[in-house]
Prior knowledge:
By secondary structure, the chain is of the alpha+beta class.
Amino acid sequence: xxxxLAADDMTKPARGSGPGLASGKRMAEVSAASSTSAAARLNxxxxxxxxxxxVLKNSKELGWTNLEVMLVSSRLHDFxxxxxxxxxxxxxxxxxxxxxxxxxxxxxxxxxxxxxxxxVFAPGTAIGARRRKVARGIHVRVxxxxxxxxxxxxxxxxxxxxxxxxxxxxRDSGLEWMLRSVKAALFEPAEHTCLKIDYLARALTAxxxxxxxxxxxxxxxxxxGCLTAGQVRLITDHVIDRxxxxxxxxxxxxxxxxxxxxxxQRFKTSFRQTPHQYLMQVRIARAREALATTSxxxxxxxxxxxxxxxxxxxxxxxxxxxxxxxxxxxxxx
Length: 333
């Protein structure tokens, strides 16, 4: 069960001028100490109080064997707290307004939204977090035995054959429904929940294997093949690094050594969207971040995020989010 990053959900950390040498060194020491301390606390099966969160409910009290679940309330901290990698599939979700960042492999994505957002972390992925708003969320870890059972039963494959894609801050109505059911079960009598959680653990795993793997589904062969994990990484890194510039289909196809026609087919199978839709998703994500965190004009943001002009950004932004850039900025403030 290997893991990689879904770069459509990722943005690279901003770089700016830092403090003086002495104060910068002190801040680095404090941040490193906080991160190390948090990682040490999290070198266990479950998250613990004190690592930027307060634990409100824990599945250990209910005797569940296939899922480790915690309902938590976040604490404000604008410095990064690190969480040590674990061997299990990890799913995190918030069902209320959230303002936080996940940091994976030195890339940071800020999640700023008024609705439900879900993140999936591949097994073995070390992560960091910054939290700018107090919010409650649920953390779910699927036991490896369940993962192996579902991989064999549904796909006749070993767990390590799957390339789980770490994805941050996405929406998925089916996955959200299952996670809400898990959350509700935390407040039910233990004797009423064990069987339900056994089914939900397998349903969650099946859903992730079907929707959050790079080339892990049988549909790939039926649809003429998927991009390999290496090709996915090349494409996502290329788009993230050059999202503001013109990106041509033939250039992406050449990057992974495919013809234009085959590339489009395999891209749609692997990403479940067209190359243009993916590029627009990355650009909209950058525009959202700029609107929420800077005072730059909408026209300037449009140009720096790869849109032809302000009108182009407004049209694409409203289509993607249901609101105009100006309305989004006002709500973010």
